Every structure is written in structure tokens, then in C-alpha cells.
């Protein structure tokens, strides 16, 4: 009985994944490229500078 319940739960989770999560992910990949992996021939470089917040400037300075 316990094994039957466990198998039913795993089957229900697999069906829910196949019906909900998988189509949402596929549609999202068709609409946009979240990691911007498409090559850009006009780009000189793909590096982007991190934002300068100033929070870490004093953190690594030598003590006086």
C-alpha cells in the first residue's frame, strides 16, 4: 500500500511537471534569450562592467 502511494505521488509530480513547468520553460526560451547567448557581430566585446556601488571600497583597504 505504501509503495503504491509513493508511486502515485511520483507519477502525479511527473505529470504536473510535464503539464506546467516544461511548457512554460519552452515558451520562455522561444520568446527571449535570458542569458543573451546569441552572438552579436557588431559587438566589440561581450564583457559588461559590474555596477559601482562604493560599498566595498573601504573593505579591502590596509588599516592605518
Brief digest:
The protein has one helix spanning 2-31. It has 64 residues and is mostly helical.
Would you write up a description of this structure?
It is built from one helix and no strands. Helix content is 47%, strand content 0%. It has one helix spanning 2-31. It is an all-alpha fold and 64 residues long. The N and C termini lie far apart (71 Å). The protein has a domain at 1-35.
What's the structural blueprint in terms of helices and strands?
Blueprint lengths: L1 H30 L33
Classification by helices and strands: mainly alpha
Largest sheet: none
Fraction in helix: 40-55%
Mean pLDDT: 84
Q: What's the Cα radius of gyration?
A: 24 Å
Number of strands: 0
Order of helices and strands: H
Instruction: State the low-pLDDT regions, or none.
Output: none
Could you list some keywords that capture this structure?
flat, mainly alpha, 64 residues, single chain, 1 helix
Amino acid at each position: 500500500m505504501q509503495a503504491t502511494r509513493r508511486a502515485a505521488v511520483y507519477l502525479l509530480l511527473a505529470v504536473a511537471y510535464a503539464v506546467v513547468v516544461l511548457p512554460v520553460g519552452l515558451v520562455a526560451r522561444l520568446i527571449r534569450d535570458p542569458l543573451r547567448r546569441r552572438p552579436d557581430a557588431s559587438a566589440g566585446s561581450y564583457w559588461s562592467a559590474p555596477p559601482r556601488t562604493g560599498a566595498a571600497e573601504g573593505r579591502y583597504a590596509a588599516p592605518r
